[in-house]
Structure formats: C-alpha cells, structure tokens
Amino acid sequence: MKWFVYLFGMVWIAAGGFLILYTDQCRDIMGKAFARMGRVPMAVTAAVIGLLLALSARGSANAGVILVIGLLAIGKGVAFFWNPNQIYEKTLGWWLADAADQTYRLAGIIVVVLGTALISWA
Questions:
Q1: 50, pLDDT greater than 90
Q2: What is the pTM of this model?
Q3: Range list of H helices, the chain
Q4: Angle at CA 44, nearest 5°, toward 34 and 81?
Q5: For the chain, what is the domain count?
Q6: CA–CA separation, 112 vs 36, rounded Å?
Q7: Mean pLDDT, residues 30-46 taken together
Q8: Is residue 26 within 8 Å of residue 111, measured between CB atoms?
C-alpha cells in the first residue's frame, strides 16, 4: 500500500501548488466540483481516502503521523456525513465565499509540506 502514500503525496503537492499559484481559478474549480459532487459523496470520499491512508501507514517510516492524517480524514467524512448543525454547508460557504486569497495560499503551503512529508515518510 506504499503506492497509495506516494500517489496521495504527489496529488497533495500538485494541489498545493495549484492553490498557491492559481488562487482564483482554484476557487472557481472547487466551487463547481463541490456543487456537482454533493455532501454525501464528498463525505464518503474523505472517509475512504482516510481509510486507505490508515491502512497504508503500516509500512511507512512514520506510521503514526500518516495514521493520524488518515483518522482525521475519516473523522471529517463522518462529520460531513452526519452534518451536525449544517457544518458541511457552513464550511463550504466559508471556503468558497469568505476565505481570503492568503488563506488559500497558506492552505497550499501546508498541503505542499504535508505532501512532501508523505512522500519522504513512505
């Protein structure tokens, strides 16, 4: 399952670079994608990715950190699935409408660092 950690790390690096360099276009593309996908498929996707990360953590050098990232993704999927107090709509509304460009760039930097860490720890 090391291949999944490598693949996900590369996807995170690419997504982080996209967030940093093309902030406005990223906001538009994410808005269209989230509108088409819906809450339940998004929750299931997050939970499945988290489960795959948690399972992939066993063979990696820093299994604890990758396991924590996977468990956080599973928790996000569960929270978005049950949607207490409309948390999905509030989060999506803030991310797509209210978040500043600097927030997107900071998220991009964090995602690039995490993606690089995943690849180096795999």
A1: yes
A2: 0.87
A3: 2-21, 23-37, 39-56, 63-82, 87-93, 101-121
A4: 80
A5: 1
A6: 26
A7: 91
A8: no
